[in-house]
Automatic annotation (TrEMBL):
GO cellular component terms, A-Z: plasma membrane
Pfam family, one: QcrA_N
Family recorded in the similarity comment: Belongs to the Rieske iron-sulfur protein family.
Species the sequence originates in: Cellulomonas uda
UniProt protein name: Cytochrome bc1 complex Rieske iron-sulfur subunit
Transmembrane segments annotated in the record for this chain: 51-72, 84-107, 151-173
Length: 347
């Protein structure tokens, strides 16, 4: 049989069910175990040097990001873009990791890890209690060691102050970039330009495309992709699909001109939501899916939006065939390609 204890510690039985005690004994705080840095000054100095090094690396990382933004613009080649992105990414990683790891290291190994308990009081404390609280804050600041470690304070403040530059500098200027969005109103597609496979540039005959086929297409005139024409390719990429002509609900312009050829239709691959590449085609439903945010377009019905955040159909490239049977463009896209938040006027 169990020995009865105080009533507030026992489980009382009422109606056959155990009832929780009215209150529990306060177990108190766990025994404090000092860290090496608390008892060994050599360890303390070593940790201080490590924290200082990490914060200094953060400062250097921010400087590297700012320098790379101006000194290493993306340029027009794959190599220059890769180098610019690499330096910016590494610099941003160093400045963030330096602050994060350095700050966490300092908190865990140098700041006081003792637990303090203060009994709850009613609303406003007395003046005497407030004076005690202020003194406790001062003692806590002294206990943290910050008042005695000026170098770490200076490095930490400098790292935090410089870090926003790595995010703000790209927003302030447009070094190496061209933000004239009016250029998206037109691409290099022109009347008579042959449709070619991406990336080989081989012209496509209508007879090569069978029902259900999906082709990634670029203009045949797009050459020397690594010499200043990457931006032109980005604007001109097209997805070519062949359907059974009986499945097409619409293949005409507002003026009544036919924009397809024997069930073959061509649409811009650039999603009208935020510009991701649309390339997932479902043959049975004729739906075209954007993998980024799941905007879905109906290829059989002028690529109108059937689901997702996109607000505008994919621009259609009017196509036909030339005398040799090759697929050619009748002209440029009917309207500007790309996300809908840009100005949509076509003139």
């Amino acid at each position: 049989m169990s020995t009865p204890h105080d009533s507030h510690q026992e489980l009382s039985v009422s109606g056959g069910q155990a009832q929780p005690p009215a209150r529990f004994e306060n177990p108190g705080l766990h025994e404090h175990k000092p860290r090496q840095a608390d008892v060994d000054p050599r360890v303390t100095k070593r940790v201080e040097r490590q924290v200082l090094l990490l914060l200094t690396l953060s400062i250097l990382g921010t400087i590297a990001v700012v320098w790379a933004y101006f000194a290493l613009p993306p340029g027009d080649t794959v190599g220059s873009m890769r180098l610019s992105n690499l330096v910016l990414g590494v610099g941003l990683a160093v400045c963030l990791l330096g602050i994060g790891i350095g700050g966490n290291y300092y908190i865990k190994l140098l700041m006081s890890n003792r637990e303090y308990v203060e009994e709850r009081h009613e609303i406003r404390s007395s003046d005497e209690t407030r004076e005690i609280a202020v003194q406790m804050l001062k003692d806590g600041g002294e206990d943290s060691g910050l008042t005695r470690r000026g170098a770490i304070i200076g490095a930490g403040v400098t790292a935090l102050a410089l870090f926003p530059l790595s995010l703000l500098v790209p927003l302030i200027g447009n070094v190496g970039e061209d933000w004239n969005v009016r250029k998206f109103k037109h691409t290099i597609w022109k009347k008579g330009t042959r449709l070619a496979t991406d990336p080989t540039g081989r012209p496509i005959k209508a007879s090569d495309v069978t029902i259900g086929d999906v082709w990634h297409v670029i203009p045949e005139s797009l050459e020397d992709l690594h010499e200043g024409k990457l931006d032109e390719k980005a604007k001109a990429v097209v997805l070519l699909v062949r359907l059974d002509p009986r499945d097409l609900k619409s293949d005409q312009s507002p003026e009544g001109e036919t924009w397809s050829h024997d069930g073959i239709v061509a649409y811009s691959k650039i999603c009208t939501h935020v510009g991701c590449p649309v390339a997932l085609y479902e043959q049975q439903t004729h739906h075209l899916l954007c993998p980024c945010h799941q905007s879905t377009f109906d290829v059989a019905d002028s690529c109108k939006v059937v689901f997702g955040p996109a607000k505008r159909p994919l621009p259609q490239l009017p196509i036909t065939v030339d005398d040799e049977g090759y697929l050619v463009a009748q002209g440029d896209f009917a309207e500007p390609i790309g996300p809908s938040f840009w100005e949509r006027a076509t003139k």
